[in-house]
Amino acid sequence: MPACAQDVLLTQFYEAHHDWLQGWLRQRLGCGHDAADLSQDTFIQVVAARNVEQIAEPRAFLVTLAKRVMFNFWRRRDIERAYLEELALLPAECMPSEEDRALVLEALQQIDAILGGLKPRVREVFLLSQLHELGYKEIGERLGMPVITVRRYMTQALRACWLAAGTQ
C-alpha cells in the first residue's frame, strides 16, 4: 500500500478511536492528563505497527496496546517513587542536581527494562550477585542449583546488559 494511502488510514483510525481510547484510559487512571499522554503513546505504537488495514477488532487491539502502555507507565512511576524515597533519606548537601536525578531515573528505567526481559530465575541470580554481593556458590546453595547453572544464568544476564548497552 502506498505511503499516502497508509497515512490516510492511520488518520481515519486515529480520528475514529482516539476519544474512545482516551475515555477508556481516563476511567482506569482517574487522571485526564495521564490518559491523554498514554493515549498518544498507544497511537504511536499503532503508527509504528503500520498495519492498520489488518486490524479486525480496533478497540480490542487498542486495549491490548494501552494495557501494555499503562503497565510501563506504572512501572516507571514505581521506580521514580522508590528513587525519590531513597533520595529523601539523604542529607541536603548530598542531593544530586535535577539533571543527575533525571539521568539516574532514565538509567534505572533501562535497567528495569533489561531485567524485565530476563527469565525469573536468571533475574534472581543476577540480583543476588549484584545487589547482595553473593558468590556463585552461595547463590547456588540459596537457590538449590548447581554452580554451573548459576554461571550460565549470570552469563545470560550479563549478555542482556551488554547487548542493551550496545544499542544505546
UniProtKB/TrEMBL annotation:
InterPro entries attached to this UniProt entry: RNA_pol_sigma-70-like, RNA_pol_sigma-70_dom, RNA_pol_sigma70_r2, RNA_pol_sigma70_r4_t2, RNA_pol_sigma_r2, RNA_pol_sigma_r3/r4-like, WH-like_DNA-bd_sf
Domain RNA polymerase sigma factor 70 region 4 type: 109-161
Residue stretches making up the RNA polymerase sigma-70 region domain: 13-78
Keyword tags: Sigma factor, Transcription, Transcription regulation
Family membership noted in the UniProt record: Belongs to the sigma-70 factor family. ECF subfamily.
Protein name, per record: Sigma-70 family RNA polymerase sigma factor
Origin species: Herbaspirillum robiniae
